Amino acid sequence: MKLRFNRWYFTLTILLFVTEVLIAAYLHDDFIRPYAGDFLVVILIYCFVRSFLQAPVVPVALAVLAFSCLVEGLQYLNMVKHLGLGHSRLANIVLGNYFTWADIIAYTLGTGFVILVEKIREARKPDR
After folding, report:
1. Average pLDDT of 37-56?
2. Each residue of 51-87: pLDDT tens digit?
3. Are 72 and 104 in contact (CB under 8 A)?
4. Does the predicted TM-score (pTM) go above 0.85?
5. Is there a contact between 111 and 62 (Cβ–Cβ < 8 Å)?
6. Is the CB of residue 12 less than 8 Å from the CB of residue 47?
7. 92-106 burial string, b = 16+ CB within 10 Å, else e?
8. What contacts 24+ positions apart, CB below 8 Å, involve 104-107?
9. Which of 20, 24, 22 is nearest to 42 (CA)?
């Protein structure tokens, strides 16, 4: 593992962040906002981590999945309320306040997508 800035992943992070903000601000449907947003958020976090950390794909992707599941578990425990942050819009957005297994599935599918795309990218690289 090395600390090294990667412009490609950072650019993807910015694009995914903008996409997530647009989804949150303008889409109020029953599919894209709740499921695609959760699918994309693990990809966003993965790209952010890879923007600064050069490390193997699978451990980073699984760490992001574990982090996402931890946050979802905190939602199950209603941690925002227990921390006295129920009034904070930012805390409710970042930590969330509603547990659902569908989010865990979306995180898992997003992580699988990351691993698949990264493995395809690695296979296409010429040998150095």
Report:
1. 97
2. 999 999 999 999 999 999 999 999 999 989 888 988 8
3. yes
4. yes
5. yes
6. yes
7. beebbeeeeeebbeb
8. 104/69, 104/72, 106/35, 106/36, 106/38, 106/39, 106/42, 107/38, 107/39, 107/41, 107/42, 107/65, 107/68, 107/69, 107/72
9. 20
What is the C-alpha separation between 118 and 61, in angstroms, rounded? 10
CA neighbor of 103 nearest in space, from 70, 72, 60:
72
CA dist 96 and 13 (Å) reads 21
Alpha helices in the chain (DSSP H): 7-26, 37-52, 57-76, 79-82, 89-94, 101-124
User: Which positions ≥6 away from 3 have C-beta within 8 Å?
Assistant: 52, 53, 54
What is the DSSP secondary structure assignment for residue 98, as one 8-state letter? -
Closest CA to 121 of 41, 12, 4: 12
Residue pair 99/72 in contact (Cβ under 8 Å)? The answer is yes
Tokens at residue 44, please?
């966003």
- Chain position carrying tokens 């994309």: 40
